[in-house]
Write a structure and sequence with these properties.
It is a single chain. Helix content is about 65%, strand content about 0%. The chain is mainly alpha-helical and about 650 residues long. It has one domain.
């Protein structure tokens, strides 16, 4: 399928516009995130608007197409790749991360003595005046235009750190691109992995390509599905602006129904959250997988309660020093072992494909002429090696020991690969890690490799790329790989993707700096970024001041237990065709994302199971449009309220942040 230059140019321009506007909308206006999760709002809105415009033009011009259906997906893919960079994927926490050791240093925390002497000037800004203005804002900055603000940003103070982190981030993106180029054939062609988050764009593109767009959007099932979230968010949005309007509850706090002690003690904070779009994604997910998500969420809570019931109440202090974004109990460190075993399982599934890739890389096997990769296997393999060497060299140059840098980068990309599989195959648009990559190293080696400057740099680098995965790049790369296809040349697409990512990093960081220097970071909605960053440095300080990782025995026990459970799950899943649950559900058992989405997956699984049991494939195809309508309607209202929020002080958020 040929891609015209106009498509990639449109995607590039719109991607940069989204990156420039996202910090203002998400942080200053506190509107529905334009780049939230792995099915971001803004790119989907762009897809719908371009599709409608192209369809109208096609009809008016007698069949002339401004964009083909495939080109519309290319535009969507480019904007999706870039959108997360402007928010949680990079810019949301980067500058807080780099300035926190100076800005939040106090006599009590002693950061000036313990942390600041270790900060390399190439990584962290040293100009205290520039840091103060970042948090307080420029004098009369609110009265300045955006161009004047950009001119007055103290770029000289930031030039060194931004150069280092720009190279680091882009090298990491190159690693991800090469990894997806090398592994996507295994996942998408040989394993035929379903991508639930991609089903809605694909269904819309198919209707456009087959010239049945009107029939698609007027289908009674789809219209009904769209009307439900439209009605829900119209009422609740008006209620948020006018409190006299009654609202429809979408969040039920069910924890009060459970005793704080005993078997169900882990459910004292249970939430039942209703998000129509996520119910739609869950219905589009394979039934075995949607079952496994809510099943393991319940089972994970019962494990904690069961241990307490039998007298094993393990204190939270037994966690020792950890960096997991939501890690709260020792039992949750099962995920350390589970991630490791599942990664080995992925390697085992791809063993034949990886063998062929290595042979092609060394010129011992000819590539398949009918398969067009983003980058030819030989170039992708050596590009991966080169990118990894750049990352390794950057870590060592910053001050990390070579062994520490190797372990950290290996753990980081291993976790990233597993998380990408979970997100893409499971259809989880909102995903958070339980344990961080460094937690696995600390669990089995203590602080031997992550003590002192090694732990500090690993923690900071991890926060930049490998920790906050709600908008990580790699899952979007998998979706983009599916959109670009395997049967047509990829040179234009690969070039457009590369240029877009570089431009997105530059524009996102510049937009974030301009926003903070205009209004002052302390007056913006950055509480989450500040709190998590301060916690990170507090934990890093513990690594510097301690000589032994405390209370690590329970972490090792549960990590080993997680590895054993995952080994049993993957063996049963692979050997027994009747096995009812999927191993990736276990990987999300303690994720904060599942605390929000478990009910959505339960509903999606239930509707899917009942439909297939009593209605068959014919009813499933009809109801599928209803659940696609839930997704479209939810995101439609997200866009509407994002626009309304520009003119009102009060805001209404449709999606979780």
């Amino acid at each position: 399928m040929r891609i015209r230059f106009r498509a990639v140019l449109t995607g590039f321009v719109l991607a940069l516009w989204i990156c420039a506007w996202t910090p203002v909308n998400n942080i200053y206006h506190q509107g529905t995130p334009l780049a939230g999760g792995h099915f971001p709002l803004a790119p989907f809105g762009v897809l719908i608007l371009l599709l409608v415009a192209s369809a109208i033009l096609r009809k008016a011009a007698g069949g002339y197409e401004l964009f083909t259906g495939h080109e519309l997906l290319i535009v969507w893919a480019l904007t999706t790749l870039a959108s997360g960079i402007a928010y949680t994927g990079l810019a949301r926490t980067l500058f807080i991360n780099l300035t926190a050791p100076v800005q939040f240093a106090t006599v009590e925390n002693r950061w000036e003595e313990t942390l600041q002497p270790l900060l390399p000037s190439i990584l962290f800004p040293q100009d205290r005046q520039a840091i103060r203005l970042f948090y307080d804002g420029l004098q009369q900055g609110r009265q300045l235009g955006w161009i004047d603000v950009v001119r007055q940003v103290p770029w000289q103070a930031w030039m060194g750190p931004l150069t280092f982190w720009g190279v680091f981030v882009l090298a990491a993106y190159a690693v991800m691109i090469c990894l997806i180029s090398l592994t996507s054939r295994q996942w998408l062609v040989y394993e035929r992995m379903n991508l639930p988050l991609l089903q809605v764009p694909l269904a819309i593109e198919e209707a456009y390509r087959e010239k049945r767009l009107r029939a698609f959007f007027t289908n009674p099932f789809l219209v009904t599905g769209m009307l439900l979230p439209v009605l829900l968010h119209t009422i609740n949005g008006l209620s948020s602006l006018f409190p006299s309007v009654p609202s429809i509850p979408t969040l039920i706090l069910a924890g009060s129904y459970f005793s704080p002690g005993g078997l169900f003690s882990a459910f004292t904070k249970l939430k039942i959250a209703i998000y129509p779009a996520f119910i739609g994604f869950a219905f589009l997910t394979a039934k075995q997988i949607s079952l496994s998500f809510w099943f393991f969420f319940i089972a994970g809570g019962l494990v904690i309660g069961g241990l307490e019931f039998f007298g094993y109440r393990i204190p939270e202090s037994a966690l020792g020093i950890t960096f997991g974004p939501t890690l709260a109990r020792p039992e949750e460190t099962q995920m350390i072992g589970a991630y490791g075993v599942f990664f080995l399982f992925l390697l085992w599934l791809a063993r034949d494909h990886l063998k062929h890739v290595i042979l092609e890389a060394f010129g011992l096997r000819r590539p398949d002429p009918d398969i067009h990769e983003w980058i030819p296997s030989r170039a992708a393999f050596w590009g991966l090696v080169l990118s990894c060497l750049i990352l390794f060299g950057a870590c060592v140059y910053a001050g990390m020991a070579p062994v520490s840098a190797f372990l950290f980068l290996t753990a980081g990309f291993m976790v990233m690969m597993v998380a990408t599989r979970v997100i893409c195959q499971g259809g989880i648009a909102y995903f958070t890690l339980t344990a961080a990559p460094t937690d696995g190293i600390l669990a089995f080696t203590g602080i031997r490799f992550l003590g002192g400057i090694n732990g500090l740099l690993a923690a900071v680098s991890q926060k930049v790329l490998f920790l906050d995965l709600r908008e990580s790049l790699m899952p979007s790369l998998v979706h983009a790989r599916r959109v670009s296809g395997f049967r047509s040349p990829q040179r234009l697409w690969t070039a457009a993707m590369t240029v877009t990512l570089v431009g997105a990093v530059i524009v996102s960081l510049a937009a974030m700096l301009a926003l903070c220097y205009r209004y002052g970071a302390r007056s913006l909605e950055l509480e989450w970024a500040t709190r998590t960053t301060v916690n990170l440095y507090e934990d890093a300080q513990k690594l510097i001041l301690t000589s032994v990782q405390p209370h690590a025995s329970w972490v090792k026990v549960f990590s080993a237990a997680g590895a054993i459970v995952m080994l049993v799950l993957v063996v049963c899943y692979h050997r027994f065709y009747w096995w009812p649950i999927h191993p990736i559900g276990y990987l999300t058992a303690y994720s904060s994302a599942m605390r929000i989405l478990w009910f959505s997956f339960f509903c999606g699984w239930l509707f899917n199971a009942v439909c297939m049991r009593y209605g068959g494939i014919g009813v499933f195809r009809k109801l599928r449009l209803f659940f696609i309508g839930l997704v479209i309607g939810d995101f439609l209202m997200g866009g509407v309220w994002a626009l309304i929020g520009l003119g009102w002080d009060a805001t209404y958020r449709v999606m979780p942040d």
